Structure formats: structure tokens, C-alpha cells
Amino acid sequence: MTVTLTPEEARALIHGALIGAGLAEGHAGYFTDAILDTELSGLEGHGFYWLQFYCAHLQSGKVDGRAEPVVETLSPSAFRVDARHGFAHPAIEAGFRALIPAAQAQGIAAMGVYNSYNAATLGYHTGVLARAGLVALGATNSVPAIAPVGGRTPVIGTNPISFAVPGDAGKIAFLIDQSASAVAWTAVKRAAEDGRPIPPGWALDAEGRDTTDAAEGLAGSMAPSGGAKGFSMGLIVEVLCAAVAGGSLGPDMGSFTDEDCRPIDNGQFFIAIDPTRFSGGVFGDRIGALTASILAQDGARLPNQRREANIARLMREGLTLDADLHARLQAFC
Amino acid sequence: MTVTLTPEEARALIHGALIGAGLAEGHAGYFTDAILDTELSGLEGHGFYWLQFYCAHLQSGKVDGRAEPVVETLSPSAFRVDARHGFAHPAIEAGFRALIPAAQAQGIAAMGVYNSYNAATLGYHTGVLARAGLVALGATNSVPAIAPVGGRTPVIGTNPISFAVPGDAGKIAFLIDQSASAVAWTAVKRAAEDGRPIPPGWALDAEGRDTTDAAEGLAGSMAPSGGAKGFSMGLIVEVLCAAVAGGSLGPDMGSFTDEDCRPIDNGQFFIAIDPTRFSGGVFGDRIGALTASILAQDGARLPNQRREANIARLMREGLTLDADLHARLQAFC
What we know:
homodimer, alpha+beta, Ribosomal Protein S8, Chain: A, domain 1, 7-stranded mixed β-sheet
């Protein structure tokens, strides 16, 4: 059985569940917007599905819903945000209030977030910066899932990176949001649950060999996208989030799912660039020509085109979720 | 027949050929260091091989060996360098003189380079920043070689990205330097010259289909590393170099090889981060733990480990090159 909610009903459910589970009122707005946007983007499993973990983690004390993030100004273009074992979203929201005007004033600015939590859909955050007219690079690290090429022990997470490009009048021209692994970890997990084999190239067993057995893959590691090049992309994220921002390294993090009292304490890093400061006036034309050269090709699309189409459709059709999940979320309200 | 040169003989040959072909004396130092470092790193074909093009382009007027790059200060942390149709290296060198102290003072700084030229080994430049204690991200764009996934017409180049991480005392902890394509374009070109087939996944034919025919691949496009994720990485580079820095878009660039009078006019973009400003003192320990977790695994290695080993070996053994190429280079001196 499924339940279908209008976007406004979905917003009320998300906000109510977060507040009901113990999130401070002032921290719920940006977070609710992010979760709703994720569901509307068609990223099923990343919105409502994770919301149940967020609420359970509030109740278990894994995350502190009352923690006030502290934004430290390191220079006119550098900021450091202590999420203080609260959610990532209030910390990122608070940091962006300093980051956006700094990037506009200086041409470039950056911020690290530490003592943080699951950033959920990373592209939501970079999208906020792009809507403010900024080219944005974002990174967030996670629990180990990918072994170095040639090795067998995961040392970095699927560690997504996101890059958002502003378009005209507060719009996003396009947005990249991708993990360092060939496929999402949940794709392997679902295959294991269903007893289905996985295609070669998705995961490695505990000995570092390519496997088509999903359970062996879960016990081993995720294959990096494009081999060593994908591992390197995850390594860039790990350096920015753990070594520069001061979040924990993958192996030292708390679990993203367990309802324990141990904070995740990972990190995020964002760089915001005002393209008009650098480009001598050509930015808009160049982005227009670049996107046109892709869209002119049958079968090709811009990186976020599918998400944009989903938003338009699901705003009309409403959001459908499993009735059991809906009931669990309502119980938090 | 081959010729083997000591590193000092190689340096004299590189410097002599550049000056002899028309490069201003003051622009030859950093460029010579970069070419020599590339050869010592074992990146055969990227040092001496490209040097003959640099010299021929000086003589044909494609590149202006006397052009003085102009560094414009946009803010205390943002710079724009007009290479003025000269080589990329003097422009990057001049920009770095402003970028390095700015990153140290502000925590982060960036610079775009436009009206530029082949940056050669991108990791040489980011390595210079890492040796100054900075985490460095570098990008350079190039002539179209990769089609968007689902399309068939190349719109972006193999567009490399580089990321360098400082270690202790002016050393590099590790350095990533990789293109957006699955393999280097030269690997397909050599197979075509030899009439050898290429493995699936290297290139696509003019209809956008995977091909094992190297000649068809050259007439089509290079396969992006990891599919859409690799194309996206190349797209990030294109945005930074063409739209932000103001270099030409791939399709509007001059050729990297033809001895014509048409400048390449591509772009570069560099971001330099002082990790000590952001990390609250944990940077060195985190990088130490991260690299140790990779090096502890038999068969795994750090991204630049092979290059470092080559430098140590070739400093002793000397650099070997084809006698014909050696003669061509000597003729420029």
C-alpha cells in the first residue's frame, strides 16, 4: 500500500517529524526544504527514507537537535563551521549566510564544516549557491566503502562531489552531483536483499576481486567509477572534508544508520566563486554556448536535466511513499 | 637509435631549444623546469615530444614568445591572468607570484588564465603550489575529444584536473593528475598508427557506438572515464577554464599541434587553499593517517607514487630519447 501526498502535505510531514523528534524549530526550515527537494527530484530513498533515520538519531541522542552551529571567520574569504554534533543542514545554512556575501565581495570564498552529519543530497546545497549566482563546488565524506585500486580494504566513502553552475535570473544552468563509486551502495544492498546477482564492475569481494555476488560485494568494497580515477575523486573529497575542514576520516566516523549515541562527526567543504568577477563578462555567453552544444545532440542531456523534469512532474502528481514508512514518519510528529 | 642525456644535459637542451626558437629569456626558467620534471616523471611523450611543437609554434607565430603576461588583481584573493597569446607557463608563473601569498593570507585564493596555451603536465603547476604548503586544484581545457553520454559530437576536451596535497617541509604528500577520458588520446592514436585494435571502452565511433577500431575511434570521440561521471568531470573543467577564466570553449580553440598562426587561446584555473587556516591543526595528522591506510595495503599506491619513483630512477639513469627527435630539438638551439 502506498500513500500519495501533495508537496504541501509532504512539507508538513517532514517538518512535523523533525520537530516532533526533537529538532529545534529554527533548524527545521532549510532542512525541510532540502528533504522535500530531494523527493521532488525523484531521488527516491534519499528523502523520506533517510528522514526516518534523522528522526531516530534525534531520539537516540546520536545527533543534537538543539546544537547551535558556530561560524568562525578566518579571513574575509574563509570560514569554518562547527556543527557541534548537530545536523549538517543548520551548519551549512549558517555558514552560507557568511559564504555567499564573501564570495560576491572577494570573487571566491570557502568554508569547512566539521563535527557534522549526513549532508543528504549534496547538490541541494550547491544549488542554493548557484541560485545566488555563484559557481559552487561541494564535497562531503562518509564511512569507508571504496578500497584503493590494487588493495582490498575500504578507506574512503562513496564521497560525493557536487558542482553547480548558475544560469539566468536565480536559476541553475546545470548541476553535477555524483559519488566516487561506479553505482550507489544501495543498488548493491537491494540486489543482496533480493538475492539477485550484480553486473561486473559494481563491487569487489573482500579479496579485492570483481564479483557478481551482491552479498560478497557488501562484505568487500564498492568499485570506484572508472577505476583509479574514481578512487582519486573520492580521495579529493576525503582531503577537503577530513584534512582541510577537520571532519573525521572515514574509518573514524560514527555510523550513518545505527541508532546509537555516537555522532557521525564527518565534514563538508564548499567553494563558492563569483564568475562575473573572473570572466570579464563572458560567463553567461559561454555557459549558454556550452549547454546548447550538449542539448543540440539527440540522446544527450545536461547533468541535472532528469531531476528538473522530475520536479515539474512530481509537483503536479504528488509524492508517493510506502504506507508503512508514512506511518513511521507520522509517529514522530 | 637513441640518445641518453644527463638531467643537466636535458635541461640545457630544453632551455636552448626554447630560447633558440624565440622564447624570451625571462620566460624560459619555469617552463624548462616543467618540461624536465615531466620527462623525469616518466611521462614519455609529454616532455621532449611536445617540446618540438612548442618550438615550431614559436617559429610559426602561433605563440608569442615575447608576450608579457598581465596579472590583474580582482580582490585580495582573486586574480586574472592574460597570457596574451604567449605560453601558459610564464602566465601561470606570474600568477602564482600573486596567488601563493594571497592563499596564505586569505586561506583561499584563485586565479584564471586566458588567451593561454597548452599547460602541458598540469600536475607540475599544482605541485608548485603544494610545495608552498597549499592544497591545490588545477584545471586546463583543450580541443573537443569527448561527446556527452548519449550524443556523438565531441564538445569538451580530455580536460585534465589536478589536485595536489602538501606533505611535510615543502614536499608533496600526493598528487592527482588525470584526464576526463578513460585512456589518453595518444593511446588510441598509436593503436591507429600501428593498425592495432583497441579494447572496448576506450573510444566511440562517429555514431557514438563503442568501437575496437582505433581509426574509427579517432574519427569519433574518446570514451569518458566511468561514463557520465567522467564527462561531468570534463564539464567542470570546461566551466572553470572557459566560462570562469574566460579561455575559449573547446570548439573555438586553435589546434594544439598545427603549425599555423592561430593561437590556442584556451584557459586554466587554479584554486589554492592554506589547509592550516581551515583545519584547526589536524591537517598533517589526517593526511598522514589517510596515506598510511592506503600504503598499508599490498598492491595499492598513492596517485603520484609511480612518478616519484621514476624521478629517483631517471635522475640516476638519465633520459633517453629518439635520436631523430634529439636532432630536431638541437636544430632549434
